[in-house]
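>> Question from a student workshop board

For tomorrow's exercise we were told to take the sequence and the ligand below, predict the bound structure, and bring the output to class. My setup keeps failing. Could a helper post the expected result so I can at least see what it should look like? The ligand is adenosine-5'-triphosphate.
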Amino acid sequence: MMTCISGIPGTGKSSVSAVLKRMGHDVVLQNDTTGNYFICDDPDRDAAVIDEDLWASEFRPVNGIVEGHLTHLLECDRLVILRCRPDVLKERLVLRGYSPEKVHENVEAEALDTILIEALENHKEDIILELDTTERTPEEIATEIDDFIHGRRGANFGNTDWSEYLGTMI
Ligand SMILES: Nc1ncnc2c1ncn2[C@@H]1O[C@H](COP(=O)(O)OP(=O)(O)OP(=O)(O)O)[C@@H](O)[C@H]1O
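>> Workshop helper replied:
Here is what the output should look like for this input. Compare the format with yours to find the bug.
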């Protein structure tokens, strides 16, 4: 069974995945699988552009967890989307040294539910679990994901609404 953990950069995917790995889950990093799909560097965003559709269509399923901000594009059995309140996400990304443009782009995408919307275009609702990481530890989030993977809790999404942040601090 393959579980994907997606979310805007800074929502806590790596932190949560590290805990899940310690709990015994096999974790594959998206960035370790995209090398053959490189198109060019994007200096404005300080990121590589990859052929996302080709990567997603050629991805070989794994029995475990795949973590990365594009993994909601993959076919999978369970999909977890991590969320973070825009003002807190902004702090996390500024601390990382992201440029103001990159902070804005990511925080706006979070406020607009971008990943959830894309996920709903590709997946059935009953495999999606959305978790707000804002005021919770990676350990708490990892426990919820472990419960989801093992069927001890069900799918759930649509409970975050960051629209009040649009057009204000971002
Ligand atoms: N639940 C949390 N509570 C507080 N801080 C957190 C939490 N999760 C992550 N952080 C902090 O937020 C920052 C970003 O976390 P992390 O690298 O896990 O995000 P990410 O979603 O994996 O980002 P990327 O997609 O760029 O790899 C880190 O400084 C991390 O310590």
